[in-house]
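We give the chain.
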Amino acid sequence: MHFFMIDVRAKAGVRMPKSQQRAVVECWVDFPLQSGALAIARLYIADDGYRVTKVREHGWIGDPKKLQPGQRGPVRDARRFGACFVYRHELKRTAKP
């Protein structure tokens, strides 16, 4: 199973709240080849109205038992459904006066 951490932005013309226009997506894709897994991730991300701006990280998950307990849920879901995506929207903080 492949893990990707991907920076995304809303596609031009897609209407969504400003707070959701940028995100970091954590992707778990159960596919044997890295190129195929990344293509699957890009497809689902595009279907959600985003475009990929950067692939920050890639990793291979061989034995999910070696993961922390909190990290096993997405892996379990990806094994069951083929993929799992978690969107973390980046909020810009403003300094308080």
